[in-house]
Amino acid sequence: MADKNFPLLFERSKEGRTSYSLPELEIDAFDLEEELEDVYIRKEPPKLPEVSELDIIRHYTGLASRNYGVDSGFYPLGSCTMKYNPKINEDIARLEGFSHIHPYQDPNTVQGALEMLYDLQESLKEITGMHEVSLQSAAGAQGEWTALMMIRAFHEANGDYNRTKVIVPDSAHGTNPASAAVAGFEAVTVKSNEEGLVDLDDLRRVVGVDTAALMLTNPNTLGLFEKDILEMAEIIHDAGGKLYYDGANLNAIMGYVRPGDMGFDAVHLNLHKTFTGPHGGGGPGSGPVGVSEELAAYLPKPLIMKEKDSFRFDYDRPQSIGRIKPFYGNFGINLRAYTYIRTMGAEGLKKVSEYAVLNANYMMRQLEKVFQLPYPQHCKHEFVLSGSIQKKLGVRTLDMAKRLLDFDIHPPTIYFPLNVEEGMMIEPTETESKETLDSFIDIMTRIAKEAEEDPETVQEAPHHTIVKRMDEATAARKPILRYEES
Amino acid sequence: MEFRYLPMTREDKQEMMETIGIENTEELFADIPGSVRLQKELELKEPKNEYALMKELTAMANRNTSTKDVVSFLGAGVYDHYTPSIVDHVISKSEFYTAYTPYQPEISQGELQAIFEFQTMISELTALPIANSSMYDGGTSLAEAVNLSAAQTKRKKVLVSDAVHPEYQQVIHTYAKGQEVEIIPIPLQNGKTDLVHLEELLNEDIAGVVVQYPNFFGQIEPMEAIQKLLENQKKTMLIVSSNPLALGYLTPPGEFGADIVTGDTQVFGIPAQFGGPHCGYFATSKKLMRKVPGRLVGQTKDENGVRGYVLTLQAREQHIRRDKATSNICSNQALNALASSVAMSSIGKHGIWKMSEMNMQKARYAKKKLKEEGISIVYDGPFFNEFVIQLNQDITKVNAALLEKGILGGFDLGKIDPSYHGQMLVAVTEIRTKQEIDQLAKELRDMHG
Q1: PTM N6-(pyridoxal phosphate)lysine: at which residues (chain A) (predicted)?
Q2: What would the pLDDT profile of B269-317 be if each residue is shown by its tens digit?
């Protein structure tokens, strides 16, 4: 293409074109202008594009070719679990009996949907070892906040209004402290020790009568299992706090250990990570919440109940934190996750975790030959390398990430967690073949060599993408957030 | 059992274990304390092959009554509109649906540009300059707007009209509790926000006023009068939840001085799918640009001067100023925003006016027809595509009888408040035919007796 500026749909627009065929009116038109006051009638129609159907298809086909998904290639984006998104899931979600049902239909007319939800609740209870599960939350962050609101309601029901603090490790996902703040808590940080695990002494220092909860992901964001989890649970519980499990990393432990058995009081899961809901370019996700018996009364409304052979909503939950979302959660994503669980079963899910962990360790042992590995023990489903050796050569982790783009690979998560210098967080997932892993190892090794012998090639990367590095500073300083006709 | 999503062969596994220096994969899990290790296999249903599972889940789907098989007059926040075929074709492109959040702009220009276009369309519909890349749904989007108004004005009270969707009101209450915001309801007069009460409730402590336009009962709120009342309270924000399709014909809230407009784009190309995922939108005035929750895409250039797009103003986002966050939203509804963009582009500038108007026309025909059949219409004000009727019997029974005739009746308002017993909220969209409307009128007349 000569003009590298890919046109906006608005720039393809031409007065009078349309791609929509409206139904017939069939009736004598009412005089709306007489009924409505003039002030309520829009003066000018909104400037939506006027394009033909083929224009739209070409436009979005062009945009798709300027995008990259798991189906395009390897996507080892740490903490995001970019595994293959099975196609049967998409087909099931599009069955009309699932896709075209209204949330306010009589429950008797949606028994299949309710059974699926109930069965998914039960499956997730078993997988997490929790007492009760709600499928309401739309995403991981909403799940975190929902659980914290429940923990808050629990403390308040005990007359305990002074538990204002939520402890969060320095390696935690960024949403953890944000969720704590939105739930009305103050987030306090607990440090990691030299092994990359929560420092128990520091935990004892920060815990107290004001502790509402500790938020923990296990394995943590370094991909390391918090082996002192039972001691941590004891420290928090002895102080009267609750233990919260961020399920973003559940892919590492299914069938091996369950949050409920480790002493967690509340968990959220990311069905769009562990359970193959596609990420959709940013969403929609689904973030169910599981809780211990003690917290079950506070779950958001409604839950799905089974009565004899039929299913219904349970709204009779007087201690519930209330409603967190209209209707019943992201049903379509829950359905995809359900299809996946039914495809894999117990044996399959355990193998998922086995291979997710095997793949990560294999890559880690190969890559530690050329990159600094700050925490040398076995990892779980992901690991974090440091680009500190390459930084000394003038090549930043950002540069190496951009260089990966030249090889049609999505870079790892970079500069996270914050406690690793020039971090690269790599999560291969279990759905990748050994050939893919080996190819990535070769490319990373080559880039490390380039950093020594030909640093400019890395520093100036990417070379083969349709656009080069973007001017993000100007984007933030002089924001252009919508198209304006010139 | 072989698992088709697990590609490693026995040889692969063996080689990899040798590289790692382990005898078996159990060694990789040795750091899990033995006392909590799961000693049993998870008790889940046996895995099924693709054919068998497809068959079972298709049967499960068939146990639900799909709106494709009945004539639906059910709305109340989720509507039955026609979705152009191209929508599903576009969102089925796996470069879109299997991608993560566009953190690497060089290989995410497709998604970023699509979101930029979505932001533009929402901005056009609402007549506000800023729109974000999407929220979970209309309800949580509105709840975030309430909390934003409190944070921005440093006030702790928000007035919420009783004609806001009841489930949205419940979500607002839950969200407000986290931020210690007090929600004060504004009562109704003839199905609309009561201006006398609103005026009485307004004072220097009020962060925002929330109305729905058109409101839950389908009525068009007196936005002009509300705007006038708020002129005396400069700091108090006007927050409007709007069905974006209605804004194709009705004056957009931005022109009535709204500071924040939220809603759900389900009406554009997103199937009902039992209530989710849908797609919230969030639009604001320029003043709030740096306070908007969620993600924003901005236009910029690459180092060769080629136009492109990036996620921008991320200092607002949770992953930077984590502990000062006023919103924690991370994942959004990007793929559904894409679906709505395709649908909106398909409908186009003049089409949206016509489609919006057609909803109003057919709803008026239905209202007239029902009235002619002796059914009383509860509110007589101007409305969009929904109106309330009063019957002399239980709506659950009415709807069960209608379903026998292949009609999905309207929402039973008695479910939200006993004083609404016998009232049904009837939704009529552009896809309802004259014959279908006539049949509804006939059936209701026969039952109403």
Answers
A1: 273
A2: 999 999 999 999 999 999 999 999 999 999 999 999 999 999 999 865 4
> Which pair of structure tokens corresponds to residue A187?
């987030």
Domain end point (choices B322, B343, B364): B343
CA neighbor of B408 nearest in space, from B80, B72, B75, B77: B72
Half-sphere exposure of B274 (CA within 13 A, CB side): 30
Q: Do B43 and A99 touch (CB under 8 A)?
A: no
CB B160 within 8 A of CB B130: no
Do residues B192 and B248 share a domain?
yes
Task: Establish if B192 touches chain A: CB-CB under 8 angstroms.
Answer: no
pTM of the model: 0.98
Domain of residue B361, CATH code = 3.90.1150.10
Q: Residue A456 and residue B179: Cα distance in Å, rounded? A: 50
Residue B433 and residue B292 share a domain: no
Q: Which residues pair with A132 in a beta bridge?
A: A291
> pLDDT tens across A220-235, in order?
999 999 999 999 999 9
Q: Is residue B256 part of a domain?
A: yes
Structure token pair of residue A114: 């309710």
Sort out which chain A residues have CB atoms less than 8 A from B109's CB and list them.
6, 63, 66-67, 466-467
pLDDT over threshold 70, residue B187: yes
Domain at A89-344, CATH class: alpha beta
Q: A326 vs B275: CB contact, 8 Å cut-off?
A: yes
Q: Is B168:B139 a contact under the CB 8 Å cutoff?
A: yes
Which ranges of B7-63 would DSSP assign to H, the alpha helix? Answer: 10-20, 50-62
| Domain boundaries, given as residue ranges, for chain A | 9-65, 89-344
Q: How many domains, chain B? A: 2
Between chains, do B327 and A361 touch, taking CB under 8 Å as contact? Answer: no
Same domain, B78 and B103: no
How many Cα neighbours within 13 Å face the side chain of A289?
A: 35
Alpha helices in B232-386 (DSSP H): 334-372
Chain B's closest residue to A260, CA to CA, is: B36
